[in-house]
Amino acid sequence: MTLPEQREKIATLAAAIGLLAVVSALYSGVATHDFVEFDDPLYVIANDHVREGLHAGSLAWAFTNDTAFLWHPLTWVSLLVDAEIHGVERAGPFLVTNVLLHALNFGLVLWALLALTARLDGPGRHAACLFAAGVFALHPVQVESVAWVSARKELLATGFLALTLVAYARYVEAPSRLRYAAVALASALGAMAKGSHAALPVLLLIFDYWPLRRIGGLRAPAFGLLAVEKLPLLAIQVAVVGANFALASGAENVWGHDPPLQVRIAAVTVNLVDTLWRIVWPASLTIVYPNALQPIHPLPALPWVLAAGATLFGATFLALAFARTRPAFCVGWLGFLVMIGPMTGIVPMGLRSPHDRYLMVPLLVLALGVAFGVRSLATTSRARRATAALGFVALVAYAARTHQQIPVWRDSDALFSHALALAGDDPIAHYSYGTAMARRGDVEAGVAYLERAVALHPGHADAHHNLGIVWTHLEEPERG
Fold it and tell me: What is the Cα–Cα distance from 228 to 275, expressed in whole angstroms?
């Protein structure tokens, strides 16, 4: 190892430690936050199994229940451990665990990126990896996953995905059955935390092209062999996705019906462009994003749909056109689309909102592509210094915005008042805010918000149910 390489490694280690300190400082305030009236009752507050803590019965329940209409036993085990240690009276200990997991994930992500790019030559590799990992750690869209107890599954799944990437890089370096088994095990554990990374085998195939350089192109003979190599990993993901679809089929469709395919395609197209804008300019982040996947909201105007489609098509065309000369941009863009694709709502499930928590891995892949794409353009030492300065400014800006976003998740009042200010008359925000108010004893205010939720979405069964309970508490049954 040359002296400049040693210096780069030492500088990267020092910068990584500094970033860990920044992450810890940014999220330190969540220790005083409260649970919120959005899945937290389902996952912790009103969940008798979690409240009992960790024992043989609750452990068996973690692997067999359909409480959230998802199969994610490792997430349940994680929450059970927290409940056993700290109880469930305060959200702070659960959120501190989230922060520790996010900090750990930053280290795992940096390790994975360095392992994946080890075959690349030239200066600036460590800096590019550090920037991509820094974006992952500091970007404000990550606040939802870190400052919300019920998003524990996102953190666990992402950590295991990073371990999968590390194991895969080691397997590519020296293929063996044992190393492939490590890849499969890490992938399976991630799926058991949350089955949101179903496209992971495709992402690995994209990484085979760059930065691993195992294939010369999609038509190369090696491509078919490498695709077959991913089949066991695909089988794992298909099995978990199948289990989750089976559980989800028993859940009530909160919207009453699914929009037709052409509406879903148009809505997803617009949502993807909106999501990209949130990544670049995260000024208006909230817990719900009303959109046409929810039948009560209209489809955007045709010119906007066409403009969004043209934007996505143009970006994809350029990425493929420069795949040979600037492969990082191509891999970053295609990897982003592949990893966010299953979460776009094209197959309608749940609330069908392009939540920030879906962006953990897509953001990382996109940041990797941008970091190394810019690195390939900065061919002089002066250009490298300029791009490093711009990268530093971007990370500082994202950290500052994250600092502003974290208090939004302080409690239900802060969260839903913020959501209503940004999303307007959204029935989910009204329902959650009204339920939170009623639960804490502010019954009349709770009724007002629940009534508004029902007025906006008359088919919202839970809103009707909670409103009926609150009216009964007010001893006004004649209003039912």
Answer: 33
